[in-house]
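[step 3/7] inverse_fold.run input=structure_tokens len=288
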């Protein structure tokens, strides 16, 4: 099975588990908006949770639920990121964004509900109290004012800054906005398995940066039909990107270097880590 087939199969598995979670909630328009936001996508973060946990022998029934949690958190961030007061996007995963299909208020509430649902799912994991607490605390830090939310605020501020961000500043911004949740996704496996997360942190730090560089490249060279979202948005908003600083070829080279760093970080693991190695290579080769 190719990596893309493996990722697709895992995505379907996470999607089914997500539907089961959503079906436990009261019927409402907010629920429909939540389901819409959760539909589609690569579910790469969930895949990283499952594959990293597999290194420590964590039961798949547990890791699937943790994968659902991170995908809920990620979906919330996208719903809010797409709002007119943020990035003002009308297309996500090949379908209308939540505020376009419904309205701004529904999008805000659906995002809020997905965020809290992520922590509810983690709180109900079939794991020890210490493990559940560690997952909840670490995800709160990764997604909040010291992680993803900080990165989004930095990104918004950069649009109106007098000077464009330097390469180091963009790297720091994206380590928060994109990298924090990717790091959590890989580290979650070690937390679930109560093992050493050092190698997975190194892996995910490099992977998160490579992922964002690939996103910047797709915004310049990608096809809207494949990406499922508008392209050329960064240039239109006047955002400084890795492509601005490094050029297309330089950005590709840097992304490939980071993938090599990510793969090297896993050298202490055997073939069980091949899925994570393939995920790193996929990040720079993807077209969506």
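[step 3/7] decode complete -> sequence:
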């Amino acid at each position: 099975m190719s990596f893309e087939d493996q990722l697709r199969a895992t995505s379907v598995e996470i999607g089914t588990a997500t539907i089961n979670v959503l079906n436990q909630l009261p019927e409402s328009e907010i629920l429909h908006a939540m389901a819409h936001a959760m539909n589609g996508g690569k579910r790469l973060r969930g895949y990283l949770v499952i594959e990293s946990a597999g290194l420590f022998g964590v039961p798949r029934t547990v890791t699937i639920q943790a994968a659902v949690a991170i995908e809920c958190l990620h979906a919330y961030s996208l719903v809010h990121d797409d709002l007119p007061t943020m990035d003002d996007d009308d297309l996500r995963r090949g379908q209308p964004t939540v505020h376009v299909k419904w309205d701004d208020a529904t999008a805000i509430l659906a995002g809020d509900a997905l965020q809290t649902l992520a922590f509810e799912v983690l709180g109900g994991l079939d794991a020890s109290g210490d493990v559940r607490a560690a997952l909840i605390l670490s995800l709160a830090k990764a997604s909040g004012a010291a992680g993803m939310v900080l990165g989004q605020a930095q990104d918004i501020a950069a649009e109106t800054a007098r000077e464009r961000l330097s390469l180091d500043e963009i790297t720091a911004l994206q380590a928060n906005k994109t990298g924090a949740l990717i790091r959590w996704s890989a580290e979650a496996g070690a937390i679930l398995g109560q093992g050493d997360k050092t190698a997975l942190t190194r892996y995910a730090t490099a992977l998160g940066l490579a992922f964002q560089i690939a996103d910047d490249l797709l915004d310049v060279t990608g096809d809207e039909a494949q990406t499922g979202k508008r392209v050329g948005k960064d240039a239109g908003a006047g955002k400084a990107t890795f492509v601005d600083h490094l050029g297309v070829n330089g950005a590709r080279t840097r992304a490939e270097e980071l993938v090599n760093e990510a793969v090297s970080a896993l050298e202490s693991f055997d073939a069980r880590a091949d899925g994570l190695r393939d995920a790193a290579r996929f990040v720079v080769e993807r077209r969506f």
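[step 4/7] annotate
The chain is about 70% helix and 0% strand.
The radius of gyration is 18 Å.
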